[in-house]
């Protein structure tokens, strides 16, 4: 993730996740205007830091999802989840080295991870916390659909 590494790393270390998402959007346009694509019909290659970070995100979302769905997750649970996702995004930004085309695709997923983490932390209203967890789960599933990660399993979403 060479092109945006310095900017996002600085943002991850110095400002809240909200600003980090804005930085990602400012650098490459709105994530809503970009659509994930395969690499000539194949999944994009990954590197070890990306796989490590996404495995940790997967574990975090899988852990909190049942409680969030049941309405039993606490504000502290959501905050810890959002922080864990934010830490993995920062790690990814600092350590992941993908070719520019794959990097651009990953930025779409990173923007969704950041937005979901923010929502889980209540930054878009208390009623959006569970939806933030779902957004992170969906971003994780998109990662598995578009990026090559041996052994990756989709997060099972309720309903």
TrEMBL record:
Signal peptide: 1-21
Keywords linked to the UniProt accession: Signal
Domain of life: Bacteria
Protein's recorded name: DnrO protein
Organism: Comamonas flocculans
